[in-house]
């Protein structure tokens, strides 16, 4: 795994897009999400550190997604086939196997309803699709600099 090949512009934009998606998504679905998560808005205090942690986590997700997309494509050659469309498609596959399924399992064991699972899973689907599309569109560092 070669971290020097990371296109930091695409990774940074992907993380920023994920953060904006989360902000808009949970602003629109804040009340249903709080109800599904059994959170009482009257007793909940806003912790701004959670916003910083969320962005840093999304940055890590973008880096890992970049490395996965890079390695998935012909042993790291990032051929012509890796573009917006393939970044989008691979992100869906990664979401399905590595994000949606753990959310489903965890929330079943935690006793939450399907409403919370659907809200959270769709959020991460939108995030990964946006990240994959951005990373795929930009391609690897070598392509961007040519």
What is the topology?
Blueprint: H1 8-28, H2 30-36, H3 49-72, H4 84-109, H5 114-138, H6 141-145
- SS-based structural class? mainly alpha
Radius of gyration: 17 Å
The general outline is globular
Q: What's the mean pLDDT score?
A: 90
Main pleated sheet: none
- Helix/strand order, N-terminal first: HHHHHH
So how many helices? 6
pLDDT below 50 for ≥5 consecutive residues: which ranges?
none
Strand content: under 5%
How many discrete domains? 1
The proportion of residues forming helix, as a percent range, comes to over 70%
According to DSSP, the number of beta strands is: 0
Q: In angstroms, what separates the terminal alpha carbons?
A: 22 Å
Task: Walk me through the structure.
The protein has one domain. 74% of the residues lie in helices and 0% in strands. The chain is built from six helices and no strands. Helix 3 packs across helix 5 and helix 4 runs antiparallel to helix 5.
Short description:
This protein has helices at residues 8-28, 30-36, 49-72, 84-109, 114-138, 141-145.
What descriptive keywords fit this protein?
single chain; 146 residues; mainly alpha; 74% helix; globular
């Amino acid at each position: 795994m070669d971290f020097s090949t990371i296109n930091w512009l695409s990774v940074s934009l992907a993380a920023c897009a994920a953060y904006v998606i989360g902000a808009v998504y949970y602003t629109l679905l804040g009340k249903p999400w709080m109800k599904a998560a059994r959170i009482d808005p009257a007793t909940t205090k806003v912790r701004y550190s959670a916003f910083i942690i969320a962005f840093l986590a999304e940055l890590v997700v973008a880096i890992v997604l970049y490395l996965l997309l890079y390695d998935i494509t012909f042993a790291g050659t990032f051929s012509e086939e890796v573009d917006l469309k393939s970044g989008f498609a691979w992100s869906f596959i990664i979401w399905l196997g590595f994000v949606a399924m753990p959310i489903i399992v965890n929330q079943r064991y935690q006793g939450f309803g399907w409403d919370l699972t659907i809200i959270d899973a769709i959020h991460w689907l939108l995030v990964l699709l946006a990240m994959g599309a951005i990373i795929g569109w930009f391609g690897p560092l070598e392509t961007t600099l040519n």
